[in-house]
Specification:
Helix content is 88%, strand content 0%. It has 115 residues and is an all-alpha fold. The chain has a single domain, classed as Arc Repressor Mutant, subunit A. Helix 1 crosses helix 2. It is rod-shaped, with a radius of gyration of 32 Å.
């Protein structure tokens, strides 16, 4: 998990400490509980570090969600643009065919008068 490595680097703690702490936080444990009663799991992290980890974890997860949303929206927009261009081209082709048919009809009508 990239977020785990990033948190470990930012907080200058081990990835195992981050993983264990994230697991405890995700399990619904409070920061004071983790700091007091789960020191063996966190590698003796104090409440300040756990709180900072929790805040950064929330921020990074939200950021990842926003990035995914933006990527999805861009992809949808590109898809819509492609579809719009296709409809636009079809409209031009249809208009061109219509003009061509009108020209042929006019030519046929002119030939009938002259003949």
């Amino acid at each position: 998990m990239e977020i785990t490595r990033q948190l470990a680097a930012e907080l200058k703690i081990g990835t195992k400490q981050v993983e264990q702490t994230v697991e405890l936080l995700d399990g619904g444990n409070t920061i004071p509980f983790i700091a007091r009663y789960r020191k063996e799991a966190t590698g003796e992290l104090d409440e300040t570090v756990i709180r900072e980890l929790s805040e950064r974890l929330t921020y990074l997860r939200n950021l990842a969600e926003r990035k995914a949303d933006v990527a999805r929206l861009i992809e949808e927009q590109e898809k819509n643009d492609t579809q719009d261009r296709g409809r636009h081209c079809q409209g031009h082709r249809a208009a061109g065919i219509g003009r061509h048919l009108q020209a042929l009809q006019a030519q046929a009508a002119n030939q009938g008068r002259c003949g």
